[in-house]
Amino acid sequence: VVDYRELNENTIPDRFPLPLISDQIARLGGAYFFTCLDMASGFHQIPIHPESVERTAFVTPFGQWEYLVVPFGLRNGPSVYQRAILKALGELAHTYCVSYMDDLTIIAETIEEAVERLHVVLSVLTNAGFSLKLSKCSFIMERIEFLGYDICAGQIRPNVRKIEALTLLPPPSTVTHLRQFIGLASYFRQFIPKFSEIMAPLFKLTGSNKGKIEWLPEHDRIRSLVVQRLTSEPMLMIFDPQYPIELHTDASSEGYGGILLHKVENRPHVVAYFSKRTTPPESKYHSYELETLAVVNSIKHFQQYLQGRKFTVVTDCNSVKASHSKSDLSPRVHRWWAFLQAYDFDIIYRQGKCMNHVDFLSRNPL
User: What pTM did the predictor assign?
Assistant: First the structure.
């Protein structure tokens, strides 16, 4: 991946808006059959203007090369691509073809209607010069996952993967694990009425040493109640870009995690949770590399929300913020930042004691 950070800083942003996720999800309600089309090579289907080709130049051991199509990493790639797709689809984009970046979903109420509409959309895309990646396409399905939601039988439900980073975890077995869970719950305590009263039995368990704790059914009921509050309204909300977007990340040798948030009236509302266990090689990374990896993989996980939108990354690693503008990076970190350059975000540093909510996910990954 070419490092286009300097080019992006000198590029006038294209403000073409991406579709609202809530609007696109609402259009799927009432449909019973779905065809999902995935565009091949994404941005590479869009040609570069001849006057801009030289600005994409990069050097390799085999000489200097230039892109003739839009490469990954250019600032305006998402906006240009979305405009091209909507222009190609025309009125179809406002009727039965739901478009979000390189994901197209054709909705229908009957199988016959689904086949007919698929033929129309394929004809339109072919005439416009677009091609599909067949291995990632699904045809006439009764259940699909779209932008973080499960769609089936005319109904729309949040995808369980948005909250499984919490719901699938086993109860804490040590004082350390319990304190990490309390740190997560405390960050969102304003959404849990009588928080101190409810959590009192768990607070008492933290007074012992760091060894095993006696976890009773009473404690598990409290934990289940807190998890239920953290994974339902008003705590968990549908993504809405009119509100400020924050991505809180943290990492440890055990795993890394991220929480996608909106700030509504200065209060944090979760959109989705994410955690992942580190691989054996990753667990040996330097802490700075782990924190950067947490940012990269969290953005990849939430890319449908973040691509083409301004957001803020919050981390407890000051080195990650400093490397935002550095050029003397290790090859591994350089590759990560080459990926991140396609996203428009600021980085804020906060002390670790203010990041207990996401620290829990990094130390208790799935």
Answer: 0.68
